[in-house]
Design brief:
Rossmann fold; six-stranded mixed β-sheet; globular
């Protein structure tokens, strides 16, 4: 570590999600002479925790308490409602701070690459999850739930989250922070069948046993699975612990029978979408049967049509390109060498490595990038937060401090009904008004 008492190292972290907070925590724990500003375009902190984690998984959202504790440190500050590119340029931040770190996550949906995916009724999981999680960008998404059949493409936990939220009853969601407008649409929908479609088999699925097991505990939904797909794995001794647990759960699900008046949740493997059809709105998709090959998945040429009015693609995310920043279009991340992009610019978390791992995976990533920066960068006498404050005042920008975010948080908790933990606001102007009250 080359940082010493000769000056303060000013660090700007763009993105107030897990990667941003774990990085700030690491800096604060390692040296007093580091001042960290966590900048986010929304008035609210916590990123994926607030707008990505399923509303019925409140225990996972409790990690926000740890991030709040980081914000209580004298050398860490949250600056909300300040957008890179709109309010301040990258060049300006690099001039004001010794270090700028992109912790923007991977907020953009990966495209299926099929004609018709822009039809009404077709959504990426980022926008759909953002809609039911009260993200301001997606409050007006208005997805089509007036359909008996929904199709979810993907074999990961996000696909299970989407299916579970669509299938749960109002009573099951009563103690969650599901957006009220979404609850109204979901709980009055006419859904009868939900399909989770995966191009590989049950062994290759990226479900965790906890998430998969929840499907067999739904009040008004029966998960269904073809037991014939398990036969090939009965004698396989090379499976991981997770794979064995998932197969055991699927074996239980395979014993289920459709129940009258309950939603049917079909876990379908070895299929991939090859066409999305409709005029202006989605009417059906064409699925091709697949088979596993040594180098991946191959289509068999056997296709079947599935009528549906809602399709949610859960096939992954990518970071948003920023003008002037090297970007790998294939992997959807910023180009870096162990997190160093160039000069005093770095990246961390999903923006660096892609959407992999759990929320906690970002902690060692944040520690690593903090160590790297402290060994490479010395204070250079830059203005830091003081200079940013001047810029904000000059441009008459309405930023939100962590103390003012707490006002928003309190108002959300007071606005709730029943046993729900909060009623998240989606109108930014309203949030700013509360913050400045």
């Amino acid at each position: 570590m080359i940082l010493n008492g000769s000056g303060t190292l000013y660090v700007a972290i763009i993105g107030a999600g897990p990667a941003g907070y774990y990085t700030a925590e690491a800096f604060a724990a390692k040296h007093d002479n580091v001042h960290v500003d966590i900048i986010d375009r929304l008035p609210t902190p916590y990123g994926l925790i607030r707008a990505g984690v399923a509303p019925d998984h409140q225990s996972i959202k409790n990690v926000a308490l740890r991030y709040a504790a980081t914000n209580e440190k004298d050398n860490v500050h949250f600056i909300g409602n300040l957008e890179l590119g709109r309010d301040v340029s990258m060049e300006e931040l690099q001039q004001l701070y010794d270090v700028v770190i992109l912790a923007t996550g991977a907020p953009k949906d990966r495209a299926l690459g099929l004609e018709g995916e822009h039809l009404q009724g077709v959504y990426g999981s980022g926008s759909f999850v953002g809609w039911y999680n009260s993200h301001p960008d997606y409050r007006d998404l208005n997805p089509n739930l007036k359909t008996p059949t929904a199709v979810i493409i993907g074999n990961g936990n996000v696909a299970i989250d989407v299916a579970r939220i669509l299938a749960k009853t109002a009573q099951e969601m009563a103690e969650t922070d599901l957006a009220p407008y979404a609850a109204s649409e979901i709980h009055t929908s006419i859904l009868k069948d939900i399909y989770i479609i995966g191009r590989r088999g049950p062994v290759e699925a990226a479900f965790t046993p906890k998430e998969l097991g929840e499907l067999n505990k739904l009040e008004n939904c029966t998960p269904l699975f073809d037991p014939a797909l398990l036969e090939a794995f009965e004698e396989n001794t090379d499976l991981t612990v997770v794979q064995k647990k998932n197969l055991a759960i699927l074996r239980d699900i395979a014993a289920n029978k459709p129940e009258k008046d309950k939603i049917r949740l079909h876990l379908s493997f070895f299929q991939r979408p090859v066409a999305i059809e409709g005029d202006q709105s989605l009417t059906n998709i064409l699925l091709e049967k697949t088979k596993l090959m040594p180098n991946g998945v191959e289509g068999t040429g056997h296709t079947a049509e599935l009528k549906c009015g809602l399709l949610v693609s859960c096939i992954g995310y990518k970071a948003s390109p920023i003008e002037g920043i090297p970007y790998d279009t294939r992997s959807g991340v910023y180009v870096s060498s162990d997190g160093h992009i160039s000069g005093n610019l770095y990246c961390v978390g999903w923006a660096r490595r892609g959407p992999t791992g759990t929320i906690g995976t970002n902690r060692p990533d944040g520690v690593g990038i903090a160590d790297k920066i402290l060994s490479e960068i010395t204070p250079s006498g830059k203005a830091g937060r003081q200079g940013l404050d001047v810029l904000v005042q000059t441009r008459d920008l309405h930023t939100v401090s962590f103390a003012n975010w707490k006002k928003i948080e309190t108002a959300e908790q007071e606005a709730t009904e029943g046993n729900a933990p909060r009623r998240k606001f989606t109108n930014i102007d309203k949030m700013i008004k509360i913050a400045e009250s």
